[in-house]
Structure prediction request, 524 residues.
Amino acid sequence: MAGNQAAFQKTMNQGHSAAWDQDWRKAAEYYSLALEEFPENALALSSLGLAYFELADYERALECYQHAARVAPTDPVPQEKMARIYERMGRLKEAAEASLIAAELHLRGRDAERAIDNWVHVLSLYPEHLSTRQRLAAVYERLGRREEAVHEYIAVASLLQHNGDLTRALKSAEYAARLAPESQEARFALHTLRSNQVLPRPARPKGGTGPMRMASVKELESGAQVGEQELQLDPVDETRQKALVQLAALLFEQAEEAEAEPASRRGLSALTRGAAGPLGGGSDKTRVILHLGQAIDSQTEGDLTQAAVELERAFELGLRTPAAAFDLGLLYRGRDDEKALRYLRDSVKHPDYTLGASLLLAQIHAGRGQWNEAAASYMRALAMADAEMVPPEQADELRQIYEPMIDALGSDTDQASLQSVCKTIASQLQRADWRTFLRMARQNLPPQPPGSPLTPVAEMLLESHSGTVVELIGRVRELAAREMTRSAMEEAYFALQLAPAYLPVHIEIAELLLREGRMEEAVR
Prediction:
């Protein structure tokens, strides 16, 4: 059924206007409305894909471009966009495959230059991709670009030699020499092969460092997976992974900025906009990129000391992102706590890093016996974690409820109580299943009258003095739901021994007694 053309055009124009203003969330909303009118419109699909890309929602962006590629199978642009998205996701094989498809589509459309761009991009990911080298050599030759053709034919000869195919390697070098008899590169390669010496492997073209480093970062993520099941991470490890991905993404932005027109480009370089951008400005930007790349390499290889040195150099040269500050705080923790505190206090201000940075700050303060600061930081971490468990529209309200509790801990003089707060919160957040635990804790909170303020999980944790009690209440309810009342009662009495004054435990016991018809005992 045909959609409303006027409504489609109106929402597309609104989407373009929002995109021009860099309001990508609103742009995505308008493009989605346009697609409700015409779900198979390639332009709307690609526009929505770009909006999701700018929002770093790569899965949705990929779905949009895949759909656009199905709708317009002869258009190479969706394939090019898919290649860039795959790179951001660390999926280099799929990125190369998409670029190869785009190259062939450009060639069919008689745009050899764009085809060459895509083949060169493949080689930046896989410099020893033989068929791409062969394709490039042939196209360069057809275009009359003999020097570049010779270079690729020599690269083909090198790859064939390393693969053990000496006959074809020699033929490729001989062809290069016939194509350009004056070429020193061709003569040298031919002499090397005839002397039974080894040709150097082909070099990687520019542009592959960002994707390669993102792939290395993503390998750390894949290390946190077992088969098809993803292994959960504690908040600090989760935040570390987020920081590394964001730092690696900056390398893409620099590469894209370098090849884009400086004034008019608006799409994929959004992260580096502004007066100087997160990478700083001027000639120092190149040095920032160099040290940032080396820091990522060192960290993914496990050399944390060198990673800290390189990242700090980048920071001193003008790298200004909360991701860098958090990563430096993490790298210096236990090595130089003063530096760690300085960087973590910077990153804790950013919502994406508040939880992880607060936990690290709490650990450092606790190690120094600074219990007020430690307890306040732990409570701030719990506030952020608890806010993830409620609907987004209630998150700010819940975080505000925690503020007086955080302030009170800063002036509390009961050292034993402060240490208990630290121990309780640490045991519940510094664990891989922290989300599962907090969901259970929130489900086990006593029901509130409609319109009442949200109850922070902190009240349950601190009142019961133990996360174990929270888990036991969950176990009691699970057993009761399965009609295993006797076992549920045993768990409930065990919880009562741990927290004899904790009201929710008494309520659970009373409800179990009612189930058994023991009304008088339940009332008591």
About this structure: The longest strand covers residues 225-226. The first helix runs from residue 5 to 20. The chain is about 75% helix and 0% strand.
